[in-house]
Amino acid sequence: MAVRVIIVGGGIVGTSIAYHLTKNGCEVVIVDEHAPIGIGSSFTFACINYFSFVEEPYFSFRRKAINFSVTLAEEVRAANHVHLSGTLRWGDTGSTRETIQYFASRLQRMGVAVEYWTPGDVQRRLEPNLRLGEVEGPIIRLTEEGWIDSIPFIGRLRQAAIDTGLLAVVTATALHIDTRRDEVCVTTSAGNLHGTFVCLAAGSGTSTLTKALGCKIDVAKDPGILFTASIQPSILNHVVYAGDLHFRPDSNGRVMGGHHTASFDGTDGDALTQSLRLAAELAKVVPSISQAPDIQAYAVSRPVPVDGLPIAGWLPEMERIYVSACHSGITIGPLLGMLCANEILGKSSALPTEFRTSRFKPDVKTHTLRSTEDGPEAG
Predict the structure, then answer these.
(1) Which class would CATH give 87-146+221-305?
(2) pTM higher than 0.85
(3) For residue range 329-372, what is the model confidence (pLDDT) as tens digits?
(4) From 39's CA, which of 11, 168, 195, 296 has a CA 20 to 30 Å away?
(5) Residue 184 contacts residue 213 (beta carbons within 8 Å)
(6) What is the largest CA-CA distance in the chain?
(7) CATH superfamily, region 4-45+151-218+306-371
(8) Using CB atoms within 10 A of its CB, is residue 187 exposed (0-12), middle (13-18) or buried (19+)?
């Protein structure tokens, strides 16, 4: 009997799983509540990086994932959407400067080429449109990091799967999952879907879906702000992390900025208010921002597993339900998706043990899966 996989979630992880399943001759249905599919991964800063993830196996996995994304982009004709133009980092306080230099030193000991620049040299040689006179160096540069045009990249990946004739896309909300002896049934707002397996790649929605199955895996929402300012032509080359504020170019001649703050209430109105404040701060180092005709602001959230590490594997005691969830989906999603697809098909996946669902133990009283060990902070 042909294998049919229903994937709940059409972001970067779900789409990568779908592509690699169809590439291996498997019939796939993606269910996502957004139209167009993948919009959940579209509202993201989309930096590909490993700077603050220095613990193994996550560090090596992230570096491998960046290389894999380059290869995959070439395969699906999306190479122009992956930009390994490098990242720049500096601290805005003594403690943040110490933290950055700590990670830079760790990376050097691990064999990473870390560059140290003075603010003046960065302005003269790398980013002439920045004004860094008040920045206290050094500025750390990593050439292996960068960013992805998430919307077109996911679109090309999805289209490559559709071109196999094996992918169907349903815009709907997954409401209930029923496992039976020979199949699974997913009840959605658009009707019932039947398949061999279900793969949950729904980001923070994973928590609700697994709770209904009696074994909740916590994937929290980490709220934040994204804003864009149109500046023609594009004036930046690198992704920049300046204290708590981060900004980068995009392919539409804009500057994209982002921030995660405890004072943000998660609403679109507050996103605009805080974006205007952040844009004023950003204008101190990117003067052209003050001339931008308009600023678009978005309230966003990142899915973050309870211990910060990716989750991949069969749901405990549910042999037909697979779970894949992670923070940093743009960085690791393409590789994670390929490995999860291999595992769903019964192949060897080489997924790190630390990512396994087996690290969660059921709480007999609440039926909640809890992490048995601490992981790194979500970045």
Answers:
(1) alpha beta
(2) yes
(3) 999 999 999 999 999 999 988 899 999 988 776 554 444 454 44
(4) 195
(5) no
(6) 67
(7) FAD/NAD(P)-binding domain (3.50.50.60)
(8) middle
